[in-house]
Design goal:
Low-confidence stretches of chain A: none
Shape of chain A: globular
Number of strands of chain A: 9
Order of helices and strands of chain B: HHHHHHHHHHHHHH
Distance between the termini of chain A: 57 Å
Shape of chain B: globular
Radius of gyration of chain B: 21 Å
Largest sheet of chain A: 4 strands, antiparallel
Number of helices of chain A: 15
Oligomer: heterodimer
Mean pLDDT of chain B: 84
Distance between the termini of chain B: 37 Å
Strand content of chain B: under 5%
Largest interface: A-B, 30 and 28 residues
Structural class of chain B: mainly alpha
Strand order of the largest sheet of chain A: 1-2-3-9
Helix content of chain A: 40-55%
């Protein structure tokens, strides 16, 4: 009997923009043969807010709050990078205490961001509880931020020339307490999710990115380090005294499978939480007394010129390219968003895998759509 | 039930005057109503417990606002579901879409006919009880495929197909592990199997002292039961992070409530059947009594074992991640099926020799 007429179709499925695990409004068009995915094409732009154009039409200090809205989970890192760019072009000297405060803020924010990544990645593999555990510790960080400068999501901590508020001894003690708790519950996190047999089998050897490929696609941050490339701007292109701090750069070692699989990327983030606590502790110890803001003119005019400043934000290399024509507004502002570049690898690795793997891979890249679409 | 009706037919003079077929019909309806009410109350308690257990596992409280400690929350939710607009999406296959929830619910509800609650609290003492139970739980899958196909939604179709694959794989080890017990008891009635176990824990089939093979079969049955009721780590048909909501993505209001009710009913069924087959059912270390007191103690025994198994289900659900479809199928076909077959073989040899 001939079964030629029983041909099957490939199904084209629209994953998103409203889908529980696309981290916002990413749309993935997935071509599947049953459960088997043959092709994945991401479509972006649902959250485009003309951030760069806004940057060119408002004055330099006015754009700082807008940077909060790029990668809203790592807002202080964005503030910091933009302020560094403006300060470098204007030649503003930031007081030492302000720099340390910026480091503390940025690293706390990095921990908060990685905690969300931990929770959502657990959720994407089907475990609900890690999400609540991650949010519990993040809540402590947000309370500290609230006490410190009064905001919980869009912080606007870094101002051009310094920071918005100083920490009191009480807040410093809160931060130290938090570090102690974080280190203790970190082990619980790993027992609950990281070394869970099902979780390891779901994520190990899934979405392997070889180191060469990671560099070719311009990946940065935990995605690049997960592939075993030791590249962290905090050490490789230091800013804010990061070169003086003593911390390790975790890289993927293929502990559970191949180097560069989803588990490695996840594990790099988990270990970065601990490394960040080390940095915060050292910053708290070393912080000198003094002013927290440099004298910056009310109307800030930058000299003619251009500058590119890059920082390690929780997701990778965030860069601000600023061209000034001597006025109060930038002539051109270009933002290099890490999530945008990291997302570009989806086509290459989200194929010839199962439908559930696509979700794990996209989750392990850990994108924030606010940053992808800008 | 039959004994009760016959007793009434012979002893109540009023009933002897009407044709017995009407009496049977009325009593069947009453029995169905009682079971439905029992299930609804159980589901309401279970949903509340699930949310509370989940809350406490996840470092929060769960429902707290409706009533003291939120005990009325589930009732409020049920009322909300009843009041919602009944949406039948225009692009669906109307017939399949409409009857699917009822078929699923029927598959979960009908097995309660043979389920004893204690030694003399039961509806029917069917001689093929376990067989009937397994056959009807497999009925559910038809409804789910119909829901998946009728919704005209790709995610729903994925959910339906996943459930079909899952059911086919896990029915086998489930049935074989029941056979392992049947080999020892020589009876297919749930009464016969439960009465073959003594009232002390080491006389139950779950005890390795009674038989190491039924000990294995007990675990296989429970794991397969988890898969059959779509609980974590086998909740692929409705995998929220992958398939949005799976086969019931397009359902809302009452129709969704039927799926929901069916899922929790099936959970109760799996836990209750495991407690009857492997954990001694109404036999327990509580002092034994005759008459209604004995029935009450039996009911307490059955319910406490059932609730313990439920708690394990909740515990697993809020701790474990989900398996992938290939891992799900290989768990059943590569591990559970050979293990259960081996247990059956061992049980057959043991019962032949000893």
């Amino acid at each position: 009997m001939s079964v030629d007429y029983l041909h099957t179709h490939e199904i084209l499925v629209n994953m998103g923009p409203q889908h529980p695990s696309t981290h916002g409004v990413l749309r993935l068009v997935v071509k599947t043969d049953g459960e088997w995915v043959t092709e994945t094409q991401p479509y972006i732009g649902y959250l485009h807010r003309c951030a760069e154009k806004i940057g060119e039409s408002v004055e330099y200090p006015q754009f700082v709050p807008y940077t909060d809205r790029l990668d809203y989970l790592g807002a202080i890192n964005n503030n910091l990078c933009y302020c560094l760019a403006v300060e470098r072009l204007a030649g503003i000297e930031v007081p030492e205490r302000a720099t340390y405060l910026r480091v503390i803020g940025a690293e706390l924010n990095r921990i908060a961001s990685h905690l969300i990544s931990y929770g959502t990645f657990g959720m994407e593999t089907g475990a609900f509880t890690p999400f609540f555990y991650g949010f519990r510790e993040r809540e402590t960080i947000l309370s500290i931020f609230e006490k410190w400068f009064g905001a919980r999501l869009t912080y606007h901590l870094c101002r051009i020339g310094g920071v918005m508020a100083d920490i009191t001894p009480e807040i410093a003690q809160d931060i130290r307490d938090f570090i102690k708790t974080m280190r203790a519950v970190w082990d619980d996190y790993n027992t609950l999710l990281s070394f869970n047999e099902i979780f390891v089998r779901r994520t190990a050897d899934v979405g392997v990115i070889p180191p060469e490929m990671a560099i070719e696609y311009g990946l940065t941050g935990p995605c690049l380090r997960g592939s075993g490339v030791k590249w962290d701007l905090r050490k490789n292109d230091p800013y804010c005294f990061y070169d003086t701090f003593d911390f390790d750069i975790p890289v993927g070692e293929g502990l559970m499978g191949t180097v560069g699989d989803s588990w490695d990327r996840y594990w790099v983030r988990m270990r970065e939480i601990i490394e960040s606590t080390k940095i915060i502790e050292q910053a708290l110890d070393r912080m000198p007394e003094g002013a927290i803001r440099a004298k910056v003119p009310k109307i800030l005019k930058l000299p003619k010129g251009e500058v590119y400043v890059r920082c390690e934000n929780p997701r990778g290399e965030l860069g601000f390219y600023l061209v000034s024509d001597g006025g109060t507004k930038p002539y051109r502002l270009k933002i290099r968003a890490p999530s945008f570049c990291n997302l570009s690898i989806t086509n290459a690795i989200c194929k010839d895998c199962l439908l559930a793997d696509v979700i794990v891979i996209v989750g392990s890249i850990d994108i924030v759509l606010g940053e992808v679409d800008r | 039930m039959r004994e009760l009706i016959e007793y009434l037919l012979t002893h109540v003079p009023l009933l002897t005057k009407v044709p017995s077929i009407f009496v049977y019909a009325v009593f069947i309806l009453i029995g169905a109503g009682v079971v439905l009410g029992y299930i609804s109350v159980m589901v309401i308690i279970w949903v509340y417990l699930e949310r509370k257990v989940a809350g406490h596992i996840q470092a929060r409280y769960g429902p707290m606002r409706v009533g003291p400690h939120g005990i009325l929350q589930t009732i409020a939710d049920a009322i909300k579901l009843f009041m919602k607009e009944d949406i039948i999406i225009p692009t669906s296959h109307k017939v399949l879409f409409i009857i699917a929830p009822f078929l699923v619910f029927f598959g979960a509800f009908a097995p309660f006919v043979v389920l004893p609650y204690s030694e003399s609290l039961y509806l029917s003492k069917m001689n093929v009880g376990v067989f009937y139970l397994l056959a009807l739980t497999a009925f559910e899958v038809i409804g789910i495929i119909m829901a998946g196909w009728g919704s005209n939604n790709k995610w729903a179709l994925y959910g339906g197909m996943r459930h079909a694959a899952q059911m086919i794989c896990y029915e086998l080890p489930m049935g074989i592990s029941v056979l392992t017990v049947v080999v020892f008891t020589g009876s297919l009635t749930l009464h016969g199997i439960t009465n073959a176990q003594g009232w002390l824990p080491w006389q139950w089939f779950i005890s390795p002292l009674k038989s190491p093979f039924t000990f294995i079969a007990g675990f296989v049955f429970y794991i397969a039961g988890l898969a059959a009721t779509k609980r974590v780590p086998f909740d692929l048909p409705e995998a929220e992070s992958e398939l949005v909501a799976g086969y019931h993505a397009e359902y809302s209001g009452m129709r969704f409530a039927f799926f929901f009710l069916a899922e929790y009913t099936a959970m109760y069924l799996v836990c209750a059947v495991t407690s009857l087959l492997f954990l001694g059912g109404w036999n327990g270390p509580l002092p034994r009594a005759q008459g209604w007191l004995g029935n009450l103690l039996g009911l307490i025994n059955v319910l406490s074992k059932t609730y313990f198994l439920l708690f394990v289900m909740l515990w697993l659900r809020w701790t474990l991640p989900r398996l992938r479809i290939d891992q799900l199928l290989s768990t059943s076909l590569k591990y559970l099926l050979p293990i259960s077959l081996g247990a059956l073989l061992g049980a057959a040899i043991q019962s032949a020799i000893f």
